[in-house]
Design goal:
With 196 residues, this protein is an alpha+beta fold. The chain is built from two helices and nine strands; from the N terminus they run βββββββββαα. Strand 8 and strand 9 form a beta hairpin. It is elongated. The N and C termini lie far apart (94 Å). The model has no long low-confidence stretch (mean pLDDT 76).
Length: 196
């Protein structure tokens, strides 16, 4: 059975066993509360009268939601304000909707468990025989422990040489000296005199 309940200004579709996060409700972890504002209730395609349906829930924890950054800015006025906000919320586990209660998963029957273990052991035996066949292939690609492996890489081709650059190597450029007519530095510009 499901129900649509309203709490904290929002509506939630819930069923027995569901976990939901709602706006903060009063109470501590482990407390049981009743969600009274039931808008709709039903089971499958049929709808039930919502006024008679009661939804009970257990508080799992009181927590905070994700941080929301609030950033205010007024351009050209050097006004910037940054603040953060984390909304308070309550985590709920729905215990029952109407007369239907949440069912806890029971442990498997004792007779079924040994049969499952025997089937698992039977399935592992063929896999164990196949594993040694696959292992030598893996060892062939992996080096032995303690052995350093050097990967060989192909050398890249040099860039093609231009015609003019071939005649003059880059290392033998003539260095001009001051005596040979190297351009002199310009004198610094004079600042205008301050007005009196």
């Amino acid at each position: 059975m499901f129900a649509v309940v309203r709490t904290g200004g929002k509506q939630y579709r819930v069923a027995a066993g569901d976990k939901i996060a709602v706006e903060k409700l009063a109470g501590d972890a482990g407390d049981t509360i009743t969600l009274g504002d039931v808008l709709l209730a039903g089971d499958g395609d049929s709808l039930a009268e919502a006024g008679k349906v009661v939804v009970s829930a257990e508080i799992i924890a009181q927590a905070k939601s994700e941080k929301v950054v609030v950033f205010k800015k007024r351009r050209r006025h050097n006004y910037r304000r940054k603040a953060g906000h984390r909304q308070q919320m309550t985590l709920l586990r729905i215990l029952s909707v109407g007369d239907q209660k949440a069912e806890k998963k029971a442990a498997p029957k004792k007779e079924a468990a040994p049969k499952a273990e025997e089937a698992a052991k039977g399935a592992e035996a063929p896999k164990a025989e196949a594993a040694p066949k696959a292992a030598p292939k893996a060892k062939a690609t992996e080096p032995a422990k303690g052995v350093d492996v050097v990967k060989e890489t192909k050398a890249k081709k040099a860039a093609p040489v231009k015609d003019g650059a071939a005649s003059k190597p880059a290392d033998e450029k003539p260095v001009p000296s001051k005596a040979e007519g190297a351009p002199a530095k310009k004198p610094a510009a004079k600042k205008p005199a301050a007005k009196k």
